[in-house]
Amino acid sequence: MSFDEISRDAVADGVARLHYLWANISCLEYRAIFIDNVPLASIPQLAFTGAPDFDAVYDLLAPLRSPFVLNVTRADARQLMIVVEDVHTGHTRSFVQSITDYAGDPSTNALANPLLENEEFHAQLMGLVLSASLWITMTPYLTAYRAVELLYLELDSISSLDPTRTHPFPTSNFVFAGLRTLGLFTDDPFIYVSGTELVDFVDRIAPSCTRLELLRVLLADSRECLDRRFDVVVQEY
Hey, how many other C-beta atoms are within 10 angstroms of the C-beta on 172? Predict the structure, then answer.
């Protein structure tokens, strides 16, 4: 059934009642028709699967207003989600892709989300959320976001409640030169990290960072090194 065969009023009425919509439309032509003909602006949570094109990304983002939080997180073992959240309304636009879509060179990768190339978008961000397991894959695509001041790193590489098995930190030296606040969190009940390794990580990737926030993240060693390194350390459970 084509959109011409559907009552637009009926579609609009049905869509207006939705709180969440996940669409999987790989054909660019059909995707454009869908976006042009279905009133998506009123849907609080909207997700699209597949490599996003420039027009689709910015058409879907049009109803949102800055400041934003940008989430680059793992959806499952094979997929990642790039989510833009309107901080004031909580409305989100999510783009779900295969992690392998980002295996190529950022300068030539036609599958990458066009938003990651926008050198002006970072100025509209309140913060960036990134899964640690995606650090090596995705930081080459985040060069336009080096100036972000707030980064929340999801510690998702391992799941362990054993204090002798601390969560590792990314080894690549991608530098967030403007970072002032680093937050570490886990979706597990809690997880352990080494304070010494944490300080080394921050010195490498965010030398200007002065504030550390830990959410359900416990130290396997002394906190003393954190108090020496940061002006403010906040720990919540």
Answer: 10
